């Protein structure tokens, strides 16, 4: 097979570009894996802890607002029972907050499962590119190196010798 | 919590591939034999195809992560 290379330096320059690509692509992959892991860590640990704490506070708030409401209902002023509107509203608000915390706890659990699955798929997809970067590109770089060496040797051999040399 | 920013990595990957293909086009002007064709088919096309498959996955994963974080916050 005959070679047709007009400029050996062009191949040398591409070899350098390929090395830079491999480094940049690996950096991009590592950055994305780190970001994915950060989000997974948040949903596996930080979010459940946050909602657990909020749920405990919400239970406490329901208990204390219930006591306030009950106490108010027992109270009579000049023989009349108080309407206890504010206390009732506070009690209802505390119950709504508690329900929201319980709903969020369940939502976090569901999303954690979904994200684990998504992240596994994502890592698997990136592994294909990582294999190219770690196995195939070094072969390509070596081939380019061999090609330029051969072409240089050939150019050296065929260079016309000057008279007297 | 800021959702995992995968788009930045995705952009870096696209940039890296664009630069590589630009360099290859320049090299191709000077390397015009069958070996160049074989090299492109064996080593460069698989990279282009793999990156092409990965980019939509990055976009989808990024969206899912963003939604998860939004829904699980206050």
Largest Cβ-defined interface: A-B, 53 and 45 residues
How many strands in all of chain A?
2
- Helix share bin of chain B: over 70%
Largest sheet of chain B: none
Helix/sheet category of chain B = mainly alpha
Distance between the terminal alpha carbons of chain B, to the nearest Å?
A: 11 Å
- Shape by Cα distribution of chain B: elongated
- The whole-number mean of residue pLDDT values of chain A reads 92
Order of helices and strands of chain A: HEEH
Distance between the termini of chain A: 32 Å
What percentage of amino acids of chain A are in beta strands?
A: under 5%
Give a concise summary.
The complex is a heterodimer of chains A (165) and B (74). With 165 residues, chain A is mostly helical. Chain A contains two helices and two strands.
Would you mind describing this structure in some detail?
The complex is a heterodimer of chains A (165) and B (74). Chain A has helices at 8-74, 85-158; strands at 76-77, 80-81. In chain A, strands 1-2 form a two-stranded antiparallel sheet. Chain A is mainly α. In chain A, helix 1 (8-74) packs antiparallel against helix 2 (85-158). Chain A is rod-shaped, with a radius of gyration of 35 Å. In chain A, a hairpin with a 2-residue loop joins strand 1 (76-77) and strand 2. Chain B is mostly helical and 74 residues long. Chain B has two helices and no strands. Chains A and B meet through helix 1 and helix 2 of A and helix 1 and helix 2 of B.
């Amino acid at each position: 097979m005959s070679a047709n290379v007009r400029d050996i330096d062009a191949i040398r320059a591409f070899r350098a570009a390929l090395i830079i690509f491999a480094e940049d692509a690996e950096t991009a992959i590592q950055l994305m894996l780190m970001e994915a892991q950060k989000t997974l860590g948040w949903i596996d640990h930080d979010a459940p802890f946050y909602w657990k704490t909020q749920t405990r506070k919400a239970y406490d708030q329901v208990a204390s607002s219930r006591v306030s409401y009950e106490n108010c209902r027992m109270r009579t002023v000049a023989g009349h029972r108080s309407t206890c509107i504010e206390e009732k509203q506070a009690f209802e608000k505390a119950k709504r907050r508690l329900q929201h915390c319980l709903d969020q706890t369940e939502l976090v659990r569901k999303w954690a499962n979904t994200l684990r699955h998504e992240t596994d798929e994502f890592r698997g997809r990136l592994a294909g590119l990582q294999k190219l970067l770690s196995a195939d590109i070094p072969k390509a770089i070596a081939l380019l190196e061999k090609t330029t060496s051969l072409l240089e040797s050939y150019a050296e051999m065929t260079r016309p010798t000057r008279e007297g040399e | 919590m800021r959702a995992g920013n995968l788009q930045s990595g995705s952009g870096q990957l696209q940039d890296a591939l664009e630069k590589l293909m630009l360099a290859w086009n320049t090299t191709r002007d000077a390397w015009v034999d069958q070996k160049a064709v074989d090299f492109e088919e064996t080593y460069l096309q698989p990279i282009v195809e793999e990156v092409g498959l990965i980019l939509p996955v990055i976009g989808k994963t990024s969206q899912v992560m963003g939604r998860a974080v939004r829904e699980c916050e206050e």
